[in-house]
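Priority: medium. Attachment 1 of 2:
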């Protein structure tokens, strides 16, 4: 059995691990790897998938070369925290501000692509964890962008106050709501579980005379330590994840993207991009495999916790 695919951030094993932004784990060889799954000929533990996504501290803050993904959609995030900019004639839409300390990195990336950060008219988010949406207040301060967030994530966002700043929310979104700007339409899909208002964004992007379905995966990962059984804060968390997977499976996808670049193997695809040829970001099979991985891990974690709870 091959072990999991290792790209960039996944290779970081030691050092301090930020638990998707709300807890810290000491560097410790005794970290519980969690259950292991096998999908498409590769094996993954829960801890490996988590690491693949969040990367190490440096990768969370180091600029990844900004690049065009497809059509008018560009990558402006760090090596392990995704941020996307959609460029339209009426201004730009930014998806995920990431950590507040990364906002200058994102601004630099937007400008290196030849666009103006001040043209950011709308700021969207993937889910209410600090590594994806902590920088919202600063982005609004710098650009005046309208900040929009899924209703079910609003309480968690209101508790996110870097430097005491109130989290801006100009429009509260609901499942299926559309966000329009400059001829582009983005659809907000509620894909809960990872957070209560976790949002997967879809849009149609034109490139070379063709239309492509883009899906930005909010996250369907079960972080280490998350209770699926007897969760006092979210008693219906299993139902919420189940709803999330059902929605994810219903979305047509040509170009899978995600709130962490590891979800769509950005580094490997970016390397291919530089070699020329077909656009490596067009990867419908990759979307299906990622959902297979996430769903298999969800069921493995649930089975383990049920067993531990004598169910
Ligand atoms: Zn998260």
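Attachment 2 of 2:
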């Amino acid at each position: 059995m091959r072990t999991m695919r290792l790209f960039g951030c996944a290779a970081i094993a030691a050092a301090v691990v930020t638990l998707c932004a709300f807890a810290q784990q000491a560097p410790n060889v005794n970290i519980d790897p969690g259950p292991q799954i096998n999908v498409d000929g590769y094996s993954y533990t829960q801890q490996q998938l988590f690491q693949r996504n969040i990367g190490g501290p440096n990768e969370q803050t180091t600029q990844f070369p900004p690049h065009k993904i497809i059509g008018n959609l560009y990558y402006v995030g760090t090596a392990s925290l995704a941020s996307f900019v959609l460029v339209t004639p009426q201004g730009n839409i930014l998806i995920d501000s990431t950590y507040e300390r990364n906002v200058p990195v994102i601004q630099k990336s937007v400008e290196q692509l030849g666009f103006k950060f001040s043209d950011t008219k709308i700021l969207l988010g993937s889910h209410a964890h600090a590594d994806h949406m902590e920088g919202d207040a600063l982005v609004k301060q710098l650009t005046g962008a309208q900040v929009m967030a899924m209703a079910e994530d609003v309480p968690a966002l209101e508790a996110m106050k870097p430097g005491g700043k109130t989290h801006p929310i100009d429009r509260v979104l609901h499942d299926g709501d559309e966000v329009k700007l400059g001829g582009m339409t983005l659809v907000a899909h509620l894909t809960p579980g990872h957070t209560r208002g976790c949002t997967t964004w879809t849009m149609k992007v034109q490139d070379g005379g063709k239309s492509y379905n883009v899906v930005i995966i909010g996250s369907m990962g079960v972080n280490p330590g998350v209770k699926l059984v007897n969760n006092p804060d979210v008693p219906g968390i299993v139902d919420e994840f189940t709803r999330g997977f059902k929605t994810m499976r219903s979305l047509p996808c040509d170009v899978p993207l995600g709130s962490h670049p590891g979800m769509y193997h950005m580094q490997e695809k970016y390397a291919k991009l530089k070699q020329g040829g077909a656009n490596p970001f067009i990867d419908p099979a990759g979307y299906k495999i990622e959902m297979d991985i996430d769903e298999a891990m969800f069921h493995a974690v649930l089975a383990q916790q049920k067993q531990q709870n004598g169910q």
